[in-house]
Specification:
Elements lengths: L6 E7 L2 H12 L2 E6 L2 E5 L5 E7 L21 E4 L3 H11 L2 E2 L8 E5 L5 E5 L6
Parallel strand pairs: 1-4, 5-8
Antiparallel strand pairs: 2-3, 3-4, 6-7, 7-8
Length: 126
């Protein structure tokens, strides 16, 4: 690889390949790495990526935060055009709706490994 401007985030997962396939299907991004101990997805032509690394002792974070529970250290945000359609698509792929939803134009979701991510529109009338 001759590029030196790659950047991304890496999430721990009990099954990195499965999580890469989930996000690839959710976002329409390419799977750029697909190995048992690590996988990654990226939009075509981008320098950014989301990677997933194997973590045998993975404990999913809790949303909203609770005392004495694994805390969220980050989450992913994805702007969508149609929030209801995006949520339905995520649910079909295996995501779950989080129990706490703090905003009308944002839907907090949990991926199959329990990582929170937000689907949102910039229009709060949804």
């Amino acid at each position: 690889m001759s590029r030196h401007d790659w950047w991304g985030v890496v999430l721990e997962a009990p099954d990195p390949r499965a999580l890469a396939h989930f996000y690839s299907d959710l976002l329409g991004w390419e799977i750029t790495k697909d190995e048992p101990d690590g996988a990654a997805v990226a939009p075509s032509g981008s320098v950014g990526y989301i990677a997933f690394q194997l973590s045998d002792g993975y404990v999913p974070p809790v949303w909203p935060a609770q005392d004495d529970a694994q805390r969220i250290t980050m989450h992913l945000d994805f702007e969508v055009v149609d929030l209801q359609a995006a949520v339905a698509h995520a649910l079909e792929l295996g995501a779950r709706e989080a129990g706490h939803q703090p905003q009308r134009n944002v839907m907090v979701m949990l991926d199959p490994a329990g990582h929170p991510f937000c689907l949102y529109t910039d229009d709060d009338s949804n």
